[in-house]
């Protein structure tokens, strides 16, 4: 008996038991669909992350306090407070020839109030270099300057939405808002910028760095330095210079003892890619467990089918089927069941992933719809493989039945 | 024309073991069946006639002794060789028909051909169905047929590989006397055309349609005689 005729036969048998066949493949459908959806959503989320990061520009160097591996995140990214980075470091970096602008950052979250309005806002203390580093423009008013910073001026620049939330249609310029009981005069509003690196830039409230450090936070360290390099080609050189300079300033001789992490934005992308890939495959692995559960379901049903078709097996043996013939018949049947489930699962998975991409794009995320051919092939072959693996035992059992016993079975 | 020996049993026995208890079903049987014979095997329940038929038809193996089929000792044949023998050399007719449900008459008859790579399966199956007078039922499902028709499909299935011998295990047991007579008529006709027929039955009238009757009791042969006056199945099976 050829594989093809086994295949035809299995279609007939499965067609004759439509309801049961459907229930059998259900587990496989869900498993394969889950794997496809997770892979696709993972790739979509990855594209979203990359689009976000690269929207910051590729000629930036970021410096965070605390040591990190080449590609791992530094401790400060996990919320650990490290105080090793100072504003004086940023001032020193500004002297590197290839670096055109430097900004230092501190950050806090508190309630901002104006008259009866109040919002929970993230306030960012930055040096005036921020305007050049992040290439922002103001829709009205001015950004603060060096003199404002060094004099701890009680002034603020609002993000587009922060201004809207607090002042509505009114002009915020010249008004005083309060954060932590400190009055800050609004001197400017930033143009609408949207979401960059997962932070809605329009909800931020900007203060001079020293004002934020001394008056609001009571700290003397900074949480990040960003430096802009003259062009992409000079980024590696500038990065090396910056590292050397910081080591000198911090009295570090062994690079393994760095108390800071300096990265180019491109390098950060690589690190993110590794992390998100690991996450994606981890989730797909979890989804794959459901495939195993589905496979066990198939084994169960196949065992029932072997019992139910005992007489048929006996008859087939009586008219000349060898053990191999019978085994092949049941294996092909299991493979056809799982393959059908796999194909249905792929269709559902692709449709669902497409739907997620459409919704995400509708919500103005830069979400790519990614379903790769390998992931489809993987879905097909895994589902087929599961049929063969979990069909093996029932098929073996069917094949090894004694013809007399099988024929006598009622 | 001297006939060749088709089946030769030499001192065969069959024991079954159940939880360590050995039951002897067949005790050292010896007999021969020649090509073209029509043999009925008779005996009460538990006499071992079914076990004997299973051994003769390669569905079961002997516990001791030798079984020669076409002068070949089949005792040591492996699964593949036995399957090939069942496929090519013998045909089965069962009491309970054993047709595949939800399968057409034609495909039921094609079934044995599926296992030997025969060409022109459809033509061969149609010819076999014509021989049993069912050419008008080719595309019926097996469960749409009457009992007599089902058994005739089973005979067509047994014939389709042109076997040396047809085993019929109580072929009329589930049929009314008219359908039973029709089935027996076909078997008699096949025998007249040269096929060896081995029939297992417990009805004397049915057995009398054969030419020779082997009677078993408690796993031993109690008589092995030619039939003096054969039943003419055309007159029906009940006296």
UniProtKB/TrEMBL annotation, chain A:
Protein name: Multidrug ABC transporter substrate-binding protein
InterPro entries: ABC3_permease_C, MacB_PCD, Macrolide_Exporter_MacB
Recorded superkingdom: Bacteria
Keywords associated with the record: Cell membrane, Membrane, Transmembrane, Transmembrane helix
Residue ranges constituting the MacB-like periplasmic core domain according to the UniProt record: 21-235
Cellular component, GO, one term: plasma membrane
Primary location group: membrane
PANTHER family: ABC TRANSPORTER PERMEASE YTRF (PTHR30572:SF4), MEMBRANE COMPONENT OF TRANSPORTER-RELATED (PTHR30572)
Membrane topology listed for this record: Multi-pass membrane protein
GO molecular function, one term: transmembrane transporter activity
Record carries keyword Transmembrane helix: yes
Keyword Disulfide bond applies: no
Similarity annotation: Belongs to the ABC-4 integral membrane protein family.
Pfam families recorded: FtsX (PF02687), MacB_PCD (PF12704)
UniProtKB/TrEMBL annotation, chain B:
UniProt GO MF annotations: ATP binding; ATP hydrolysis activity; transmembrane transporter activity
UniProt KW keywords: ATP-binding, Nucleotide-binding, Transport
Family according to the record: Belongs to the ABC transporter superfamily.
Species this protein is from: Candidatus Kuenenbacteria bacterium GW2011_GWA2_42_15
Domain ABC transporter: start-end pairs: 7-238
PANTHER family: CELL DIVISION ATP-BINDING PROTEIN FTSE, LIPOPROTEIN-RELEASING SYSTEM ATP-BINDING PROTEIN LOLD
Protein name in the entry: ABC transporter related protein
CC annotations in GO: membrane protein complex
